[in-house]
Amino acid sequence: MLAGVGVFAGAALLTFFLTADIFHPSLDEGIYLEGAHRVLRGEAPYRDFFAYTGPLIYWLQAALEAVFGANLRFLRLSTAVAMGLTAAGIYWMALRSLGWRFALALPPLFVCLRLPSIQHFTISHRWLSTSLMTVGIALAVEAARSPRNRRLWFAAGVVLAGAAWATPTDIVLLGWLGLAMAFTPSLRTGLIAMMAGVVVVSIPAAGWLAAHGALVPMIVKLGWAGSRYSIANKLPYGYYPFAFASARGLTSWLVALRPLLPAVLIPVTLGLGEFELFRRRWALPETLLLWLAFGMFLTTWPRWDVNLLIGVMPPFLVLLAIWANQHLTDRARPAAFATGLVLQLGATSLSLFFLVWTVFVIGAYSYFPTRVGLLRNSAADGEAMQVLENTIPAGSSVYVYPYMPVLGFMLRAENPTTYSYMQPGMMSIDDETVVLGELRAHPPEFVLRQYLPDEQVLQVWPGSDRTAMRFPAIEAFLDSRYTETGRAKSDHFSITILRRRS
Questions:
Q1: What is the H or E stretch that residue 295 is in?
Q2: Tens-place pLDDT, residues 346-358
Q3: Whole-prediction pTM value?
Q4: 327 and 284 in one domain?
Q5: Average pLDDT rounded to a whole number, residues 388-416
Q6: Confidence band of 337 (pLDDT split at 50, 70, 90)
Q7: Long-range contacts of 428-431 (CB under 8 A, 24+ apart)
Q8: Domain enclosing residue 463, as ranges
Q9: Quick one: 439 and 331 in the same domain?
Q10: Nearest CA to 10 among 79, 74, 80, 73?
Q11: What does the angle CA 407 – CA 412 – CA 415 come to, to the nearest 5 degrees?
């Protein structure tokens, strides 16, 4: 237990101190930061501002902002804690199936595989749901070892329901667990306790939304996500945009190849697991772990790109270690033992390499002050933020168009519309009509206009609607009412500052 607490603390603190103060011109982080700020002001997601994910991320971030204020570093505690919980879940699963050696080796391997994706260490519903799914699976597999332990089943239901309230597609994993329990006689006794855990979480969440008139709007927005979002985000398995554009030399090629590991290991692990089930070598806990790992993988649909696949790796790492422990570490077979030792040393060396690479890259960043705390990245990012802060006073009415709402949050500005962004190729004509009406009714003092080339959008979201890559009515409104007053350009973004004509 103490070692598990240490794994959690080590992963969370390492993530926090390495990544929490890094400036990211993120496309998505500002969605949750702005939404949480609106919740803190008494607004409700879906009713008062556009949202299509679960509400849990907004509630959590609003609670953090209530405690720490608009300090971006501490608002990213949610990401650091999520990494810690994920590591602890891996530790727990490995400890019970493999013993302490694997239990202490696998969490660092996962953390170090994640760290080089520095740009993804931002606030997101995916971080939250990944950690809750990992812990929920660990609880369910532990409960399978003693099926009559209703407290464990109840806890699994609570945690997995929390994951679904963060990312709605995670309800697939809950359904997957329910099916396993319903059709496995030894697990059936815990089904009511597991469902009770789901209800205990879901009734207060649904009650809050209903009391704020947001329950029906949430259902409507989830329908929107099922049509517009799923089309733009539909990707082939293992999709990897911008894969090797900047790979030069062995080091950069290793870093570039790293995200492909999950895409390869997931089907390999599923195949090995099915073979073990066919041979009847795995007991109920390992069988349930394989079943739930596949369910966790399904929650990434329709966006099966490498960045989401690496997030569902935790149970697959444990399953692969179970298989390797059974086949490659038999001391009675020296060749197999030697192979297993080489694999363990290789995994350790790779982990250390990715950790050192991440520390080296981050160490070269420059610090610069912002309205949301001292952050770091390139010096050009600091200069661009200085231009924005010198031009736009805190508290100003600002609309960021079409994307990158994190800039509005960092400037401590107020968005007069209910949309924090307009994604080309995903938003519909109805969305454009709503935003245009709000801009006309409450024209912001400033607009931060970002230019996203169609090719760039289509490379990240190849399923985008090519007939909706522009919002001509909004752009005509901006052209007629606003004048360029400056530009902010860095290594990561280029923004034209528009000011309303008097």
A1: helix 284-298
A2: 777 888 888 999 9
A3: 0.94
A4: yes
A5: 95
A6: low
A7: 428/228, 428/468, 429/468, 431/50
A8: 377-500
A9: no
A10: 80
A11: 75
